[in-house]
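Morning run. Coffee first, then this:
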Amino acid sequence: MIFGQDIGIDLGTATILVYVKGKGIVLREPSVVAIDKDTNEVLAVGQEARKMLGRTPGNIIAIRPLKDGVISDYTVTEKMLKYFINKVCGKFVFSPKIMVCIPSRVTEVERKAVIDAAIHAGAKKVHLIEEPIAAAIGAGIDIAKPYGSMILDVGGGTADIAVISLGGSVVSRSLKVAGDKFDEAILKYIKKKYNIIIGDRTAEDIKINIGTMYPKTVVEKMTVKGRDLQSGLPVEFEITSEDTYDALKECAEQLIEGIHLVLEETPPELSADISERGIYITGGGGLVNGLDKLIEERIGIPVMIAEDAQSCVATGTGKALEHIDLFETGNVVKIKKF
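And here it is:
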């Protein structure tokens, strides 16, 4: 096989990251595909397709084929994967071996859908790795050690909470409360409070720029545009960080509850390890201001945001490629160091 053709894919609901063995992360693009409905032809993928969201004529649809961390449109996902694999590998003589990360607690049907889509997109062999395991590896945690580490990986579609020890998840939970739900909560709040409709991309911009899950000492403001529901006309208005705090309260509570439930099921010895070592936050959704402070205050355990949190899952998936044989046989504990 040509060097560099083993690839790891973080198949995210919002973003796809591709890691090439020996090179690191080589591609980071939105999980969006634009298709001509009349011919079923793919017109654009990734960043170019994202620009078309909400702006297409009747015969063109820009869609996100992954929902809540799993495939919602199999055919489009396959086309999207094929595009990214070809973009990364070029014209390959040998089909690449691919490791794809998936949310914890997915069904066998959902696992099979990912494997089938990757094989039909050109993979020689497909291996799956759970997102919390990949995130832990990417965050620099030695997962093979006999002590407990807790990961909260907040992506676009799911938030995965897991306690990891000896190379596997001891307790895990996958919540459909993540980046997309945060955007949706902001969108609904603005509609209810201001009687104004904003687009998904505007909601995302608000979340990134002034979104918070913990009260800020200095209130931040942002001017955005939307459509007034009463007049039907475009309007410009101001939103504050206090608005986003109110909008995201419910999502934050669901994440706290999820962490509580996982800790309740965690064996006492591992709970003691977590109290000492803390909780690691990974994923782009985990970067919302104040989430770490809120968890620390409510759970009473130190919280750390991993370095380059957005890339942890992709990096971990790529590093796991080096030890595919051990993942296949379940002998992850034999891995000396990632």
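The CA atoms of residues 274 and 298 lie 15 Å apart. Good start to the day.
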